Amino acid sequence: MTHFPAAEEAITLLSQDVADAFKQAAEQLMLPHVTMRPHVLKSGSEWVAEYGEVQGRGVTPMEACLEFDAAWTGAQRDSAAA
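^ thats the sequence. predicted structure below, dont judge the formating
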């Protein structure tokens, strides 16, 4: 049987890259703006992502969603501390 160490190393590295990509995708799917699905709307010159009392604002919809994530995480932390 022929042994190809370079090919084995390439396959190992590729496997790790695929595993890392799946991990990143799974992490993205667990972000609050994905799981809670806030209402995203344009308000004047900014975008707002809101779900109940929690809001995030930004110049782009993505910025608003990321601000929503931070606000949601802070709101959850505050209610757990109370």
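The longest strand covers residues 46-51.
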